Amino acid sequence: MTIYALSTGPGVSGVAIVRISGPEASKVIESLTGKKIPTPRVATLRKINNINTSELIDEGLILWFPGPESYTGEDMAEIHVHGGKAVVLALQNEIAKVNNCRLADPGEFTKLAFQNGKINLLKAESVADLISAETEIQRLQAIKIMKGKSSDKFNELREKLLKILSFVEAKIDFPEEDLPEENIKMIKQNSSNVLNEINKILNDQKVGEIIREGFKIAIVGPTNAGKSSLLNNLSNREVAIVSEIAGTTRDVVEAHLNIDGYPVIISDTAGIRDSKDEIEKKGIKLSLKKAENADLKLVVVDAKSIDLSGFLNDLLKNNAILVINKSDLLKVKLDPEIAKLNHVQISLKKNLNIDKLILKIKDYLKNKFVSEEDILITRERHRQHLMQCADHLKNFSDKNYEKDFDKAAEDLRLATRHLGMIVGKVDVEEILGSIFNDFCIGK
């Protein structure tokens, strides 16, 4: 089957690129242009016509990439036309007339590239991350993965386990042969070294996932403290409704920000107080859950009535900045106990010290991402496979080698399999759908 799709963004644009891949790609080009396929990898100007009537659709560039030297590994073509909706639709309608041609599924071109051995799973995922990158740090992380830093490391660990497994399976195949003592020591030492390396990789504070998905900041605190106003101020737009009426915010309101190149998802939550209103109570429950899952909490309080007892005290224990709003109305010095906390006094109404708060947030972000150079995990899928690999290696190390060689070998096989599933070295059909469905159509 031959697939086709618009690979550039939908809508009006100067240029639109329609990509075609499969055994009928050459037939599509010849049918549309009335000429033989152009020289490989040379942009060639051609008139693109209606297949049945020869009516001109547009004039554009044709690029021909014969397989296997193409992105997908199959015969592939790109048609560059003017980016009007009618032009693209007319072109796609003509391609659909060719037998065995259909519109591509999301991510299907990259899926073909993986299945044809052009890229591994990590590189496929990095392509998706590069397309969706909104900040510089996200772009750089996607490029690092694309260059193969992570896959090289995971393949190296997998090769070490395969070598250990070969010794263990040799003992199973030839049970009458005694395994030399030095070989047993080497097996134990090498498997322990791999386990230590995996544990080190896992101990990364989930920085890779945070960069990819966004650093989560939750604005929490009592009602009427200025939480929604703070969200609007940081976002430079009216994201949340601001009102003097307590309890205006019932649900979580989110905004995506770019702070010095760092991706941030900032959430305004319902004011926390005792309430009999069922909807407000659900909003408060969501607020506490959001605070629990946040990478940083901005605990906003009113300078005129600072009470840090109860839930506020708990919120301030970890990963929190105390934001004392309406500080322009403060007539006395802060309580010494409050002054000891990581805090900043602001006034949203007078626009005072907002820059100091932003600086604190930036410092927190930079400290969090200080170890980004060593990050190898960018998705929860990678982490889960590494954790399961580590579990099987621990089980392997706990086995009695004299009695349990068969069971020990199975632990090693499973550990090796989980490393292989990260880069796609084993049958991974069950996870392909979830990976490639995240792609846009045409990629």
Describe this structure in words.
The chain has 3 domains: 2-104, Probable tRNA modification gtpase trme, domain 1 (Gyrase A, domain 2); 140-204 and 377-428, tRNA modification GTPase MnmE domain 2 (Four Helix Bundle (Hemerythrin (Met), subunit A), Up-down Bundle), CATH 1.20.120; 211-368, Rossmann fold (3-Layer(aba) Sandwich). Helix content is 46%, strand content 17%. It has 16 helices and 12 strands. It has helices at residues 25-33, 85-96, 108-115, 121-132, 136-147, 149-173, 181-202, 207-213, 227-235, 278-293, 311-315, 336-339, 354-368, 380-398, 405-423, 429-436; strands spanning 2-6, 13-21, 44-49, 56-65, 76-83, 101-103, 215-220, 253-259, 262-268, 296-302, 320-325, 343-345. The protein has a 6-stranded mixed β-sheet with strand order 3-4-5-2-1-6, covered by helices on one side. The chain has a 6-stranded mixed β-sheet with strand order 8-9-7-10-11-12, with helices on both faces. 37% of the residues are buried.
Q: Gist?
A:
The protein is α/β, with parallel strands linked by helices and 443 residues long. It contains 16 helices and 12 strands. The strands form 2 sheets. Strands 3-4-5-2-1-6 form a 6-stranded mixed sheet, covered by helices on one side. A 6-stranded mixed sheet has the order 8-9-7-10-11-12, sandwiched between helices.
Give the total of beta strands. Answer: 12
Oligomer: single chain
Q: What is the level-2 CATH architecture name of the largest domain? A: 3-Layer(aba) Sandwich
Q: How many domains, as an integer?
A: 3
Strand order of the largest sheet: 3-4-5-2-1-6
Name the overall outline: flat
Q: Classify the beta-strand content into a percent band.
A: 15-25%
Q: Helix fraction?
A: 40-55%
Low-confidence stretches: 241-250
Q: Whole-number radius of gyration?
A: 29 Å
